[in-house]
Specification:
- Keywords: Carbohydrate metabolism, Glycosidase, Hydrolase, Polysaccharide degradation, Signal, Xylan degradation.
- It is an enzyme of class 3 (hydrolase).
- It comes from Micromonospora haikouensis.
- With about 375 residues, the protein is of the alpha/beta class.
- The protein has one domain: TIM Barrel, CATH 3.20.20.80.
- It contains 14 helices and ten strands.
- An eight-stranded parallel β-barrel has the order 1-2-3-4-5-6-8-9, surrounded by four helices.
- Helix 12 links the parallel strand 8 and strand 9.
- The longest helix is centred in the first third of the chain and has 25 residues.
- It is globular, with a radius of gyration of 20 Å.
- Bound molecules: ligand G3I.
- The site of ligand G3I has 12 residues, from loops.
């Protein structure tokens, strides 16, 4: 199993040269324009000291060839935080749109597409020499309000087919992989009770993969799930699902493990789990890694967090079929965690002032150690 090579070697060289310039220019531009504030609290602009890469290097600079180190991108950070674009460009060689490519955001009314948010991320990624991972085509969340659960199955199926086809076709050749279905399993491992399952039956999963394959035969197609990083019952069910789909000829190329983790309760045997999926002949990827700690964060909490980040990276690097480790945002300034997990936060590699945390140092250290030993 070879790792994906979404960027050419020449492209990466050019990109690496451009990154240094981008970091400097992004910082200068942001400072120079004094970006306007956003009164919306979480959307407010933040000022932070200029970012300078660690003397130890950057994540993308130390990543082994063929392994992508990515991050989710939040346009609020991109447009409001002076330090954000520079860190994004310097540290990561892959990006995922955190929200911009979700159906609700892409098609606010039937047939009217709002590509600007996703396009901004894709265009910036091209300038930064970053691969783009598409997120997400079929999900039970962020379905536009105009899609009615009362429609007959045939109409719902057609509208879903049109959505998958339009989005994959729009980004054809610019997105190397897609989360085709996201979070299709319930906690007990059965297919999750969603609008799609209720109205279209279990075949909607296979249909979505086939539609996506047709719209871009070169994009790698993933199923993406949470709570399956270790050897859980849900992971067993996911393994079974992927095995059955592939046996039926459904074009499932990869399995994404989200990795929304708690520093106090890390998953067990991530490496072994990734390996058993890889043995099915698919790629695997850590798609949404963050490691939350109880607030206020303590030095001990951040130390444990660093160990969990490092362990997940190790697991991926040890499995040849593991294409990427993507963090779900890189700064505590823009993380979804405090809004969803009460009492928790500080889940990212950089703090809210864009200072690298012990977890960032741990990842650099792991990557550097592998370089030294060639492992
Ligand atoms: O777009 C509005 C914005 O106009 C408004 O100012 C703001 C006020 O709060 O709300 C904005 O939308 C929110 C959006 O995040 C951007 O902040 C949505 O209400 C909110 O629901 C949305 O949450 C996202 C969530 O998915 C649901 O789509 C999170 O940012 C995002 O991190 C989270 O990501 C998911 C993955 O897609 C799938 N796996 C789990 C992961 C974490 O829940």
């Amino acid at each position: 199993m070879t790792r994906p090579r979404p960027l050419t070697a020449a492209g990466l060289l050019v990109a690496a040269a451009l990154v240094v310039a981008t970091v400097l220019l992004a910082g200068m531009a942001a400072v120079g324009t004094g970006r306007a504030g956003d009164p919306g609290g979480a959307g407010a602009a933040r000022s932070a000291p200029a970012y300078t890469p660690s003397a130890a290097g950057t994540l993308r600079g130390l990543a082994p060839a063929g392994t992508l180190i990515g991050t989710a991108v939040d346009p609020r950070g991109l447009n409001l935080d002076p330090a954000y674009p520079g860190v994004l460009a310097a540290e990561f060689n892959a990006v995922t749109a955190e929200n911009a490519m979700k159906w609700r955001n892409l098609e606010p009314s039937p047939g009217v597409y709002a590509w600007a948010g996703g396009d901004q991320i894709v265009d910036l990624a091209r300038r930064n020499g970053q691969a783009v991972y598409g997120h997400t085509l079929v999900w039970h969340n962020d379905v536009p309000d105009w899609v009615s659960p009362d429609w007959p199955a045939q109409r719902l199926r057609e509208v879903l087919r049109r959505h998958v086809t339009a989005v994959v076709a729009h980004y054809r050749g610019r997105v190397w992989a897609w989360d085709v279905v996201n979070e299709v399993l319930a906690e007990d491992g059965s297919l999750r009770d969603t609008l799609w399952l209720r109205k279209l039956g279990p075949g909607y999963v296979a249909d979505a993969f086939r539609w996506a394959r047709q719209a871009d035969p070169d994009a790698r197609l993933f199923v993406n799930e949470y709570g399956t990083e270790g050897r859980t019952a849900k992971a067993d069910a996911l393994l079974d699902l992927v095995r059955r789909l592939r046996a039926d000829g459904v074009p499932v190329d990869g399995v994404g493990f989200q990795g929304h983790l708690d520093a106090e309760r890390p998953p067990e045997d991530v490496r072994g789990n990734l390996r058993r999926f890889a043995a099915l002949g698919v790629r695997v990827a850590v798609t949404e890694l963050d490691v939350r700690v109880r607030l206020p964060a303590t030095a001990e909490g951040l130390r444990r967090q660093a160990a969990v980040y490092r362990e997940v990276l190790r697991a991926c690097l040890d499995v040849a079929a593991c294409a990427s480790v993507t963090v779900w945002g890189f700064t505590d300034a823009r993380s979804w965690i405090p809004g969803y997990h009460q009492g928790y936060g500080a889940a990212c590699l950089f703090d809210a002032d864009f200072r690298p945390k012990p977890a960032h140092a741990a990842l650099l250290d792991e990557l550097a150690a592998r370089r030294r030993t060639g492992g």
